[in-house]
Design goal:
The structure is a single chain. The protein is α+β, with helices and mostly antiparallel strands. It has one domain. Helices cover 17% and strands 44% of the residues. The protein has a 14-stranded antiparallel beta sheet with strand order 1-2-3-4-5-6-7-8-9-10-11-12-13-14. α1 runs parallel beside α3 (72-86). The two termini are 14 Å apart. The relative contact order is 0.18.
Length: 348
Amino acid sequence: MKNNHRSMLYGALLFLAFSVAACGGSGSGSSPSPSSSAGDSASTPKNLPAVQSVIDQSNYVNTAAHAYLAPDSLGGITRLNDMFLSGVSVNTKVPGLTELATDVLRQLVGKQASTVTAVVESASCPGGGTAKVSSSGDSLDDMKPGDVISLEASNCGVSGLKVNGGLMLALKEGSVVPVPNGASQSVMQFQFSSLSVASETETALIDGDVTVKYGQSSAGDITVVMSGDALRTMLKRDGALVTDRTLFGFESAATTTIAKHTTSGNYTLSASSPSVRDLHVGVKTVTPFVYGADINPVSGSMLVTGASSSVTITAVDAASVRLDLSARGDGVITESRTVSWPEFEKSF
């Protein structure tokens, strides 16, 4: 699912996380103890919202957009995991991103650990503040189940950006060694502890847990299943909230073959934005979304349920999407609207 409005700082944040995983450091492998991030580090709530929101004619388009776009943050982690496991590179289009990652890692991970038991590497950041990287293994190119990598940052200034918070990455099963022409499997666990990247105008934050199951068949088909208890992503611009979303009890799957790409997901969503405040809904894939050559799906549907109400999102084709409101939640269509994908994705 594509979000045309996600800040490019999200790309910087996820790229930094990937850089830590891919380049590594030396250390104890202990879980990070995150530092504060200037008021934006409220921890992700672990309890499900008690009351679902009512979906009606005034908000069903906004509600549907939030529900559809919410897993976009998982897509970023999927690409991060893909890069780490298979060496696939991604054009992030974020100015200064290479410098951001390089400047931090040059100080923190100048050498690989020579033994399995090592000391945490810590250093001052180019723009002030501190950062710390640790790893429990002696070679990140040959991580073994149980190995852990972690990052801690406290007002770490790099390339005009401030990095705060923590990340822990653990290999639970399988291997990170690429298998170009064979079957492979792995399970990786991410723990984001109010990890944020801030520029002069924007702050992007991610907090919570994600378990990634990565499978590749002998034919080259790739399946990624992501799940977790709670994952929060937030974006502020010029001090004002753009989006603040938390996925609860989520599972999202993506499968890529030579012929097509499909996605599906089930989760409870809590969200706020300038157009919607304190939204609480359930989301379930009815039919997986199927993508062809275009960035938008050509088929698939998703049901969003509120308090005795619902809206169904159906991909008509790569150009348009239909939204069907059931004001009583009984499947009887109260109102229906077909809009272009770009218009829909601006509606949150």
